[in-house]
Structure formats: structure tokens, C-alpha cells
Amino acid sequence: MSDYAIVEHGGKQYRVAPGDELLVERTEPDLKNGDSLLFERVMAVSTGGDVRFGDPVVEGALVKAHVVRPERGEKVIVFKKKRRKGYKRTQGHRQNYYRVQVDAIEA
What we know:
Blueprint: E1 4-9, E2 12-16, E3 21-25, E4 36-39, E5 42-47, E6 50-53, E7 62-72, E8 76-82, E9 87-93, E10 96-106
Antiparallel strand pairs: 1-2, 1-5, 3-10, 4-7, 5-6, 7-10, 8-9
């Protein structure tokens, strides 16, 4: 059985294990490569076959990770139009992300 945890970050939930690399939303500004990031909202923890679920979070559980690099997502085009009124608006958006690697799960 491998250890894993379910964490919430940026309004999304992720299933993570030590050594995993994932893309999370950039909620803290100006983190550089190698900076540490703590996930404090841990919803569930599995260690050695024993699974603990939180209500809503597991007390005293932390997931430690470090930033591999900051990234930006693909461009999303936002287009608004009202027919027969001559109204058109085009706007682009690129979301900021951090690519992080999970170091340890502390439960």
C-alpha cells in the first residue's frame, strides 16, 4: 500500500503521494524554484492501509512540497456577442500555475 493524501488548493482537490509532480494554481505570489509550499487543507490521509477522513480536514495533517518552476497555462479566448446589436468583446486569459513536487505527507 502506498501512502497518499487528498489535499485542497485553489478550490480544487488533488490526490498526491510523495514524489508526485502536479500543477496547482498560483495562490501565493513570487515563489521561486525550490521554495517550499505547505498544503494545510488535507481532506484524507492513507498511511500503511489505514485511511483517515477529515470533517472537513484531518487535524494535524500536512503535505510538504517544493516549487519546481512557475508556469502559465494555455491561452483561453473569452468571446461575448449579442446578436443583431453590434456588440462583440474578445478577451484572452492565461492562468498562472506552480509545478510542485510533493516531498512528504505528515499525519
